[in-house]
Amino acid sequence: MTHHEAALLAALADADEDRIVFDLAGIEARHDSLLRELPGVAVRFAMKACPLDEVVACLAERGAGADAASPNEIAQAIAAGVPVQRIHYGNPVKSDRSIAQAHRLGVRDFATDSREDVAAIARHAPGSRVFCRLATDGAGALWGLSEKFGCSAADAVRVLRAARQAGLTPSGLSVHVGSQQMTHEAWQRAFDLLTEALEALAGQGIALDHVNLGGGLPALGYLDGHGRPLDPPIDKIFAVIREGMERCARVPGHRLRFVIEPGRHLVADHGAVRAHVARLTTRRDAGGRPMRWLYLSCGKFNGLYEMDDVRYPLVFPTHPDGPRVPAVVAGPTCDSADTHTPGRPPVLVPEALASGDPVWVMSSGAYAVSYMSQGFNGFAPLPHRCVRGAGGSRREGAGPGEGGGPGEGGGYGAGGFRAGGSPGEAG
For the segment 327-339, what is each residue's pLDDT rounded down to a tens digit? Predict the structure, then answer.
C-alpha cells in the first residue's frame, strides 16, 4: 500500500456520513508520473473529469493547464489559478455566444472540426489560434467517442486552410482515442492519422506548432465484469505515444510541441465514495429464481454514473471476514436503471451486511462529481472532502445545491470513509 492509498483509506475511515474523498497528493503524484513517462509534454487537465476547485488548483500549481469545454469551465479554471494562456477551449461544439464569452475571458486557443465553426471563431474571436480534431474509431475504449467529434485528415486540411484565409492561426491537430482506452493499437492508429494530416498540411504550406494527443489514458483500478482487474497495458501505451511523437516530429514543415488532456487517468484512482448499505435482500424473480440484491446509498444518480460500464472495487470495512454471497448491487433510487453492471455476474458481498454498514467504492474519482444529479428522487448529491497525504490538511465541500460557491468548496459533490477489510467487487 502506498502512502497515498493509506491517506485515502484514513480519510474514508474518519467519515461517518456519505461523501466522496479525493487525495490531492495522489492526484499530484499521478500527474508527475505522467510527465516522467512523457517528458516535455504539456498537460491540460480535462476538467469535466473532476470539476472541483481544489483539484484544478493543485494541478495548476504543478504546471498543468485546463482543457475546458464551456465558458463556465474557463471561468472556473481562471478562478482556481490556471493562467489563461494554459487554457484552451477544447470542445468543437460551441455557439457564437460561447465563443465570444471565451474570447472575452482571454482564451485564444480553440478546438474545431468544421469550416462553419472556423467562420464563427473568426467572427467572434478574431486573431485566435485553432487546432483541428481528427476523427478516430474509438475501438478498444470503454467509451469510444467516435462519431460526435472530429473530421477526416482531408477535411482537416480544408478546415485549417479556411482558418488561415479567415485570419486565424492554424496552430495544431488533435485526436481522442476514446475514454478508458484499453489498447496500445488505438494510439498507433491515431498517430497514423496525425502523420497523414501533417504531411498533407505541409504540402499546402500550413506549418503547425503543436499536436494535442487528447484524452483516453486509462484509470488503473477498475475491475472488469467478472471482478478481475482491467489491467490496461499502460507501459506499452506510453511507449507507443513516445514513438508516435517522434514520428510526428520527423514530418518536415512543422515545429511541434505536444499537449495531452488527461482526466480520468489523473483522478479516478485517487477518489473514493463512502456509501452505506441500505439493505441486503433475498427475493425470487419472475422466473422463480432466488436472487440477492445489495442496495447502496450511492448509485447512478448520485456519484456512480459509470457503473453500467465498469466495476469499482468495494471495501466492506466492518466485515473483513466471514462468508460471502453473490448479490446484484444497485443504487437507492426508484429507477431500474440504477443498477451496477446489469446483466453481468453478481458480486460477492458479506452475508452479514446490515443496513447502515459503511461501504467504500474505490477508484470512483472520475466523473463522480460531474454527473451527479441535483437530487433525483430526493437523494442529495454527495458532499466532498479533499485531503493531502497521510495526516495532511483537509477541506470539506457541499454537494450541488447544498450551499457554497465554486470558490468555497461547494457547487459540486463529495464525501468520507473508514479503513479495514478487503476489496470486493463493485457491481
Answer: 999 999 999 989 8
Which residues lie below 8 Å from residue 31, measured CB to CB, with a gap of 6+? 43, 59, 62, 64, 262, 266
**Helices (DSSP H) in 298-427: which residue ranges?**
none
What is the CATH code for 51-262?
3.20.20.10
Residue of 328, 268, 321, 271 lying closest to 296 (CA atoms)? 328
Print the SS3 string covering 223-244: ECCCCCECCCCHHHHHHHHHHH
Please enumerate in sequence order all residues whose Cβ is within 8 A of that of 97, keeping only pairs 6 or more positions apart, or say none: none
Mean pLDDT across the stretch 293-301?
95
* C-alpha distance from residue 39 to each of 62, 83, 233, 245 (Å): 14, 21, 19, 11
Q: What is the pLDDT of residue 270?
A: 97
Boundaries of every domain in the chain = 51-262, 269-425
Q: What is the pLDDT of residue 394?
A: 58
What does the DSSP assignment read for 128-188? -EEEEEBP---TTEEE---SSS-B-HHHHHHHHHHHHHTT-EEEEEE----EEE--SHHHH
**325 conformational bin, left if phi > 0, alpha if psi -120 to 50, beta if neither:** beta
Cα gap 407→337, rounded to integer Å: 34
* pLDDT tens digits along 64-108: 999 999 999 999 999 999 999 999 999 999 999 999 999 999 999
Cα distance between residue 101 and residue 74, in whole Å: 9
- Are 49 and 267 in contact by the 8 Å Cβ rule? The answer is yes
Residue type, 346: P
Amino acid at the residue 6: A
Spatial neighbors of 2 by CB under 8 A, at least 6 apart, are: 26
Alpha carbon distances (Å) from 166 to 93, 202, 387, 409 = 19, 19, 48, 42
- Residue 345 near residue 255, CB atoms below 8 Å: no
CB contact set of 105 (below 8 Å; sequence gap of 6+): 71, 74, 75, 78, 84
What is the rounded average pLDDT of the residues 122-149? Answer: 92
User: pLDDT per residue over 388-410, tens digit each?
Assistant: 875 445 566 665 433 333 222 32
Q: What is the CATH number of domain 269-425?
A: 2.40.37.10
Q: Which residue has the higher pLDDT, 363 or 420?
A: 363
351 contact partners, CB below 8 Å, separation of at least 6: 280, 322, 323, 324, 325
- What's the rounded Cα separation, in Å, for the pair 222 and 245? 28
253 exposure class (CB count in 10 Å sphere: 0-12, 13-18, 19+): middle
Q: Over 50: is that where the pLDDT of 16 sits? A: yes
**More confident: 374 or 30:** 30
**Cell numbers placing 294:** 445489495
